[in-house]
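haha ok so turns out i had the wrong file open the whole time. this is the CORRECT one, sorry everyone. sequence first:
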Amino acid sequence: MKNSEEIFKNYLSTGLKPNLDIKWNIGWKEYIKIEGNQKKIIDFTSGILVNCLGYKNKSLTNGLKKVINNGFVHSYHYATDIKNIYLKSLNDFTVDLFENPKFYLTSSGTEATETCMKLMLRSGQKFSPSKNKILTIEGNYHGRTMGSALMSSGSIYKEVWPLLKNLFPKINFPYIWNVSEENGADFFYKEIEKLDEETKKNICGILIETYQGWGTCSYPKSFIKAIEKFCSKNNIVFAFDEMQAGFYRTSSKFGYEKYDVNPDIICIGKGMGGGLPLSGLIGKSNIMDLALPGELSSTHSCNPLSCAAGNTVINIMKNPRFINQLNENAHLFSCLGRELCAKYSFLTKKSNFLGMVGAFIFDFDDIEKSIFFANHFCEAALKKGILVIKTGRESVKLSPPLIIKKNNIYKAFEIFDMILKSI
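then structure:
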């Protein structure tokens, strides 16, 4: 059998190159086995925050088997029992946050954020044909398809079609090591004032990541409250990209709740499908219903397998036992993370922990050195039996399954401490 690197060279596009040459074999609970490694590995990635319930989850497996036994795994837009059940579950799960919420289900995060963009544009057109600009934040990531990429860094679309970037203005991110809670609102308004008058007048939507993914970087609450006020005053749709934050990853049902605001739309995905491709939007009906009939059609929207997985995730997350375990795990994970960062000067200033997601941000005297040690940490952790997320930047992300046993949280941070001491 060829190794993963050889398979990549022979078959996969360069754009899909993995950042670690490993091959997963089997998984159970919070463990995975990697080919060529005799150890059972504790997964601190959740498959990039997707496998929130871990692996070999009996409830998830049984739900999927039931759908498969019905004889079809795809039904396009036609109704099925599991689709109806799931939509009711999703409504019950979110009705306390949105009054009469409406949903649109997709299969990938980038499709969800693209749909959010469409709804923002539809909203803008109610007020003026020129109200067509979408404001986002430098460093936020919303996907790789064209609209989502332009709402992020821009990618090749900005390089080849530079005029497009004028439709997607950006403001700077208020990193906590630069902007205090007291200065959050002022920072937002100063960033807005940097935009020209035509741009400010024609913003139809603002989309932000609930926390900046690469470093689990939160915002000052005052900054978010200022965005909400600005949107309300200027007929602007306010949306959160909750891909990495929703479904209890931050220890609350959705991450935006900690900012005490009421967005018009949230974009959801990753953990909501427990490992299957499931994403979408939840929003206020007056915004969600702006789409024209058929405008949001998606081939795999509400497919039975994904609906079964999503329904299982919600059923488990409604269980008080899950909530108790989650709260204990999140408290332990965040406390151990912060305590460990406090021991090392090169982690103290910028590292962040939020519920069941965190990031060691290496802060040495130059960026290349910081990236080198972040990458070294990932490789050293794998050798000692922990798989973490290699971001390719000066950070290492940590996001174990929500159901991980506490002893494995302790074990992981003991290993992290050993590695950091060697650095």
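The chain has a mean pLDDT of 95.
again sry for the mixup
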